[in-house]
């Protein structure tokens, strides 16, 4: 059903799918990098490598369903994600409604996922920066659960902590679902994606 392999379409990019996270080996496998993990999952399924540097990000273009899509992993660090996203939006003249952002959510258990058409930043600094710099909160998003912050933890320490082995396995399974949801969303079937995958 998903990820039909085909040549990259010759037309311009129609959608942007951006995973949020922090660049660098010290952040690999941390909760805040759930968005990176999901976008890597999408690229792997499509046989693509996110290895070009553009828009302050690692990027690649690929055929995603019937559409040409830019996959992005901003290298600006989380709190400045909007610098990368808005630069790509302006270059390709992509409206917020066609920018799908995948990111971590501490209000959801690991293994849970929630799709929204639009909304506030919910206290997430990466989303806050995208809304601020783009001037819009009308972009769809896929939230990946990374677990509730334990009472004794500071928030910054929690989101930068590593997943346990069992949690990481759950997250990768959820990232696979996020990839399937993103393809449906790109093809105009956001309601179907929400019905299938919201938990």
Q: How do the helices and strands line up, and which of them pair or pack?
A:
Elements: E1 15-19, H1 34-46, E2 52-54, E3 57-64, E4 67-74, H2 81-92, E5 99-105, E6 113-116, H3 125-134, E7 141-145, H4 155-159, H5 165-186, H6 190-197
Parallel strand pairs: 1-4, 1-5, 5-7
Antiparallel strand pairs: 2-3, 3-4, 6-7
Helix pairs in contact: 1-5, 2-3, 5-6
Elements, N to C (H/E): EHEEEHEEHEHHH
Can you name the CATH architecture?
3-Layer(aba) Sandwich
**Roughly what is the average pLDDT, rounded to an integer?**
87
The CATH superfamily is identified as: Peptidyl-tRNA hydrolase
* Helix content class: 25-40%
Count the beta strands.
7
The number of helices is 6
Principal-axes geometry comes out as globular
> How many separate domains make up the residues?
1
Low-confidence stretches: 3-10
Largest sheet: spatial strand order: 2-3-4-1-5-7-6
Content-based structural category: alpha/beta
- Alpha-carbon distance between the two ends: 21 Å
By CATH reckoning, the class would read Alpha Beta
Biggest sheet record: 7 strands, mixed
The amount of beta strand, in percent, is 15-25%
Q: Could you say what the CATH topology is called?
A: Rossmann fold
Question: What can you see in these coordinates?
Answer:
The protein has helices at 34-46, 81-92, 125-134, 155-159, 165-186, 190-197; strands at residues 15-19, 52-54, 57-64, 67-74, 99-105, 113-116, 141-145. The model is unreliable at 3-10 (pLDDT under 50). The protein is an alpha/beta fold and 199 residues long. It has a seven-stranded mixed β-sheet, with helices on both faces. It has one domain (15-197): Peptidyl-tRNA hydrolase (Rossmann fold, 3-Layer(aba) Sandwich), CATH 3.40.50.1470. The radius of gyration is 15 Å and the shape is globular. It contains six helices and seven strands, in the order βαβββαββαβααα.
């Amino acid at each position: 059903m998903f990820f039909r392999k085909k040549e990259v379409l010759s037309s311009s990019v129609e959608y942007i799918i951006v995973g949020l996270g922090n660049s660098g080996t010290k952040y690999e496998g941390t909760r805040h990098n759930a968005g990176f993990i999901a976008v890597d999952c999408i690229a792997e399924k499509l046989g693509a490598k996110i290895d070009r540097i553009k828009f302050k990000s690692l990027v690649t273009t690929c055929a995603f369903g019937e559409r040409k899509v830019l996959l992005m992993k901003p290298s600006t660090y989380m709190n400045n994600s909007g610098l990368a996203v808005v630069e790509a939006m302006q270059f390709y003249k992509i409206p917020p409604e066609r920018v799908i952002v995948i990111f971590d959510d501490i209000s959801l258990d690991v293994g849970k996922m929630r799709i929204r058409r639009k909304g506030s930043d919910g206290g997430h600094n990466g989303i806050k920066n995208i809304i601020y710099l783009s001037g819009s909160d009308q972009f769809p998003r896929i939230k990946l659960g990374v677990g509730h912050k334990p009472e004794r933890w500071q928030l910054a320490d929690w989101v930068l902590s590593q997943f346990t082995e069992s949690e990481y396995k759950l997250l990768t399974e959820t990232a696979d679902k996020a990839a399937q949801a993103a393809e449906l969303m790109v093809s105009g079937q956001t309601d179907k994606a929400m019905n299938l995958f919201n938990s």
